[in-house]
Design goal:
2 domains, six-stranded mixed sheet, Rossmann fold, four-stranded antiparallel sheet, about 20% strand, alpha/beta, single chain, about 350 residues, disordered N terminus, about 35% helix, binds adenosine-5'-triphosphate
């Protein structure tokens, strides 16, 4: 595909899917008329069974996501936070059609996406694109940037919304980047290429899974600002996953907190950060050295002690308090060097 053959045949914002897309046949009368709700999760549950060879609890059932119901309005920047193993990636995979729920339903723009044909899932790929944590492993090192951006769309027969040159310009890379290979770029630039590729089919929804975690601290802010810009410029709904609460606060206007497969608290970001209601959210915030200290002018250890005391005063049982209050700040939550502080 050349840069000139820009395609504009994707349905416009708020239009119904094209024939052959989700919404055809028996579901057509239920198609959402607009983009009011971008993503709906209805009682979504995902179980895995550990392999018999697993060293820990072989053969045991893991409830990675447990009965999650959620609606993400169109145009919102939605953050998903939680510690490692809380189920964030499993949830994202189900939203993206890369995995299926054991029970429950995922709808994108009103259309159920599971149990669908590949042809119908092509519709989903046009609506929803992903940016992953590690751009080096998600970009084919043998391909030039022009091919990287255009090739997946050609392979799947998905028309592009913009030309490669336009996309490179939008993500702040020079036009001659198109001729180069991924290894000729810095980590931050490679993530810009990933963003350009994600924007190529003119999606409505961008899923970003820890998009800056693998980057040097010095370039994180630039990539976050880029995501900010393209979400505005392309009128996107953003689902942004991170274990780094300060990054989510910077980017997202709504946030959900996941713990052990469940969403324990969801709400407007500032409200949730300033006045967390769930003990686990308090613990997460108290575990963030810089953010916690900024919130209360205290050290993380002091904040954890205060959380413990507050929970005990509320009559929360000792076991539950122990489960959510770790008096030692977790070193992985979040980066000590928050460029946005
Ligand atoms: N394919 C799988 N088979 C078995 N268990 C799995 C599988 N995928 C995920 N799990 C388990 O499901 C739980 C949730 O994992 P998930 O990767 O979704 O968490 P996460 O919050 O994204 O963690 P991280 O931040 O480390 O990526 C974990 O206990 C994990 O071991």
């Amino acid at each position: 595909m050349s840069d000139e053959d820009t395609a504009h045949d994707a349905p416009g914002r708020g239009e119904s899917p094209q024939p052959g897309a989700l919404g055809e046949g028996e579901n057509a009368q239920h198609a959402a008329p607009g983009r009011e709700v971008a993503i709906s999760l209805r009682g979504v549950h995902r179980e895995f069974r550990r392999p018999r060879t697993s060293l820990t609890r072989p053969g045991a059932v893991v409830h990675a996501v447990r009965d999650v119901s959620l609606e993400i309005p169109a145009g919102v920047r939605f953050g998903l936070v939680g510690e490692s193993g809380s189920g964030k990636t499993t949830l994202l995979k189900m939203i993206s059609g890369l995995d299926h729920p054991t029970s429950g339903e995922v709808l994108i723009e009103g259309q159920p996406i599971h149990g669908r044909s590949q042809r119908q899932l092509k519709w989903l790929r046009r609506r929803l694109q992903l940016v992953f944590q590690d751009p080096m492993s998600s970009l084919d090192p043998r391909m030039r940037v022009r091919e990287i951006i255009a090739e997946p769309l050609v392979a799947q027969g998905i028309p592009r919304g913009s030309t490669v040159d336009e996309l490179l310009e939008r993500v702040g890379l020079p036009a001659d980047s198109a001729r180069r290979f991924p290894h000729q770029f810095s980590g931050g630039q490679r993530q810009r290429i990933s963003v350009a590729r994600a924007l190529a089919p003119d999606p409505h929804i961008l899923i970003a899974d820890e998009p800056v975690s693998a980057l040097d601290v010095s370039v994180r802010a630039q990539v976050l600002n880029l995501i900010d810009e393209v979400v505005d410029g392309f009128d996107l709904t953003l689902v942004f996953v991170s274990h780094d609460l300060s990054v989510v606060r910077h980017v997202c206007e709504q946030v959900a907190v996941m713990r052990a497969g469940q969403i324990v608290e969801v709400g407007p970001t500032e409200q949730l950060y300033e006045d967390p209601q769930h003990p686990y959210t308090r613990q997460l915030l108290a575990s963030v050295p810089r953010l916690g200290a900024a919130l209360a002018g205290r050290s993380a250890a002091e904040l954890a002690a205060r959380t413990r005391a507050a929970l005990q005063a509320e009559g929360v049982g000792e076991d539950e308090v122990d489960a959510v209050v770790d008096d030692e700040p977790r070193p992985t939550l979040p980066s000590e060097e928050d460029p946005h502080a």
